[in-house]
Design brief:
transmembrane, mainly alpha, single chain, globular, 22 helices, three-stranded antiparallel sheet, 9% strand
């Protein structure tokens, strides 16, 4: 009977039954252990709020720990003195138990003396921690968030925050002011005046129309960037119509992301976080001139790559940009190995072989190219501590300064081997333009200390004003060219930058020479505007001429194209900052509308081949300087003056802002850099 009730307990069956029960228990144990492990690993994410705040909170926590360690620094090294009511216990600890009154009194005096010395040592150590820059490596600079109105009134409240390469969300709505004067001085930089505010983002104008128009410019930048990212990422430039990459001869035959480097500071200034980080990551991972095996233009590489990288280094402090600029700058040095020190135009960065263009007046170097290295090379020496770059451009200056200048007008060509001028052709357009621009800007960059630059500029601009500045029959001001002592009444679109140059000279120089220069500046800005409004597209030609029957119009078909150039709006930007005449903003807005109508395509923005046609053919090139210059000047003209103040920044000829010595705490000078102005 029991056989039908009790299980058959054979050895095999019994063993199997026991194992089955054991494994079930084992499964329960494993499940419990697994749940416990998951709870330990995942639980803090939900229960510890400090871990849910992202990178920003984690970085802040590091600084909190550092601050506490800093406060506790003296105690970590020197033990704190005992409290008065525990003197006897402290004496017992250090000297043994005391059994009589005399011993206690003697040890009490010793302890008080030791306490006094400890307090003095602690205070000295604390002072050293607070004052020694070497011990403040984790100190965070000040980030001040202000509105443009507060900036104008000087009502600024500082608060500690991190310098981040990733621009904070909403940065476009607040101005980022980085590195107070004390911190700049501690790091070897040039200390700005204590009440200065360096605004590099935000800077909204109080005028709602200006704010709306500025947002439109930002949308244009995003459209152009997305086209480049989609169809030409890593290439030098974009063909927005055919939607593919483009590489001009000035960049050699290889892809070096010229558009990315040219656009970085514009993206940062506009607070376009995602796009800036995309560009920054590309530079960090891909920008390497060791890969190049072709010739590159020394001039273009300097103003776009070196200048662009130095600018974004000044704005962010990210050493990646400084190091890349230094890497590229050193690749250019073989071009300076000439008998005079005047560099060649082209250099092969792989083997250092350099040469000039065959068409350039018997193999001469070009004035606007070797004369447009000074701002970048001086700043590169200052932030890297390597004096070689400053030495190279100072030698160029010495050579040019000592030469006889025929009629006071610098020819566009100079032979780097013989040290003699080439063809007698003087122009403030192509071949000559930025040489003069860098004379006045070198003076500004130095904090008005570079007297040689000032003297050279005043001498050159006086000759230009006396001999080349003209008035048309209807009263339009323009700058003619001189060829073999004969005037050619033609002005390039490139020469329209002179409105800003004349305005800057009038603004920063205290000299009789510049007394009428603001009037000339306004006249040039107006003439360049006329070259725009006299076309059906509202965009100006590459060159325009003046004669009895024609004014501010192109004559030759080779002069009628527009390639997204910035020089006209550059002049209007300076005129707006210096005069506040609202017409300059209106002219800039009309340019925005013309760009949208005639240059915008699905893939980005393209130049046009004839500005005098209602429906012009596209040239299918989105130039890298569209980001660096044209968009930047359009954005700034609709911004408050505090954004990239002209008292604190000087723009290189590619519109990359570089800090002014003594007026900008973002100068970031290396400790071992010795500046000689």
């Amino acid at each position: 009977a029991l056989a039908g009730v009790l299980p058959v307990y054979s050895k095999r069956g019994g063993s199997w039954a026991l194992r089955r029960v054991f494994r079930s228990r084992e499964k329960v144990l494993i499940l419990c252990v697994g749940l416990t492990f998951l709870l330990i690993c995942i639980g803090p994410i939900f229960y510890l709020p400090d871990l849910r705040g992202g990178l920003s909170n984690k970085v802040d926590n590091v600084y909190k720990v550092y601050k506490e360690m800093q406060k506790a620094g003296p105690e970590l090294i020197l033990p704190p003195p005992p409290l008065p009511d525990s003197v006897e216990a402290a004496a017992d600890h250090h000297h043994g138990l005391l059994h009589n009154h005399d011993g206690l009194h003697h040890n009490l005096l010793d302890t008080q003396q030791q306490d006094h010395h400890r307090l003095e040592d602690k205070q000295r150590l604390l002072d050293k921690i607070n004052n020694d820059a070497e011990l403040r490596v984790l100190e965070k600079p000040k980030i001040v968030q202000i509105s443009s109105t507060e900036a104008n009134k000087g009502e600024v409240q500082a608060e500690e925050n991190n310098i981040k390469i990733e621009v904070p969300k909403g940065a476009a709505e607040a101005a980022a002011v980085v590195q107070p004067p004390a911190a700049a001085a501690a790091s070897g930089g040039a200390a700005a005046p204590a009440d200065s505010v360096v605004v590099v983002q935000g800077g909204e104008d109080p005028d709602p129309t200006a704010r709306q128009r500025r947002e439109k410019v930002k949308e244009m930048v995003l459209h152009a960037w997305r086209g480049y990212k989609s169809y030409a990422w890593g290439k030098n430039e974009l063909r927005p119509v055919s939607k593919r990459g483009h590489t001009a001869g000035i960049f050699g035959r290889q892809d070096m992301g010229a558009t990315i480097v040219d656009a970085l500071d514009t993206l940062y200034i506009m607070g376009l976080t995602e796009e800036f980080n995309e560009g920054r990551n590309w530079v960090h991972n891909n920008l390497d001139f060791n890969q190049l095996r072709s010739e590159m233009s020394v001039f273009e590489t300097n103003i776009r790559f070196v200048g662009g990288l130095l600018s974004i280094y000044a704005l962010t402090g990210d050493p990646v940009f400084r190091d890349r600029a230094l890497h590229i700058g050193r690749k250019l040095l073989p071009a300076f190995d000439t008998p005079t020190g005047i560099p060649y135009a082209l250099t092969n960065v792989a083997n250092g072989i350099s040469k000039n263009y065959a068409w350039a007046s018997g193999g001469s170097s070009i004035l606007s190219e070797f004369g447009t290295l000074h701002l970048e090379f001086v700043y590169l020496s200052d932030v890297s501590g390597d004096p070689i770059f400053r030495e190279k451009v100072m030698r160029i200056r010495d050579v040019v300064r000592k030469m006889d200048v025929p009629g006071g007008l610098y020819p566009n060509y100079l032979n780097p081997k013989t040290g003699k001028w080439g063809q007698r052709h003087t122009s403030l357009g192509a071949l000559g333009d930025s040489f003069y621009e860098y004379l006045i800007k070198a003076y500004v960059q130095s904090g008005s200390k570079d007297e040689v630059a000032r003297e050279m500029y005043e001498t050159a601009i006086k000759a230009i004003t006396d001999k080349l500045v003209m008035k048309s029959h209807s009263g339009l001001t323009y700058i003619a060219e001189s060829k073999h002592d004969r005037l050619e009444h033609k002005m390039d679109h490139l020469a329209c930058f002179t409105a800003g140059m004349y305005g800057m000279g009038a603004h920063v120089l205290n000299s009789e020479i510049v007394e009428n220069h603001m009037e000339i500046a306004e006249g040039i800005a107006n003439t360049c505007h006329e070259s725009y409004v006299r076309t059906p597209t509202g965009l100006g030609p590459e060159s325009f001429r003046f004669s009895e029957g024609i004014e501010a119009r192109a004559l030759k078909s080779s002069e009628k194209y527009y390639i997204l150039r910035p020089e006209v709006v550059e002049g209007w930007f300076y005129m707006w900052r210096y005069t506040k005449n609202p017409k300059y903003r209106e002219w800039a807005w009309n340019m925005v509308l013309a760009l949208e109508k005639h240059c915008r395509v699905e893939g980005g923005y393209t130049g046009i081949q004839n500005v005098y046609m209602d429906n012009p053919q596209k040239d299918d090139v989105q130039q890298s300087f569209l980001f660096a210059e044209t968009f930047k000047y359009l954005y700034l003209i609709f911004s408050d003056d505090t954004l990239l103040s002209l008292d604190q920044w000087v723009f290189n000829t590619e519109a990359h802002p570089l800090p002014v010595v003594g007026h900008n705490s973002m100068y970031r000078k290396a400790k071992d850099a010795e500046g000689q102005w």
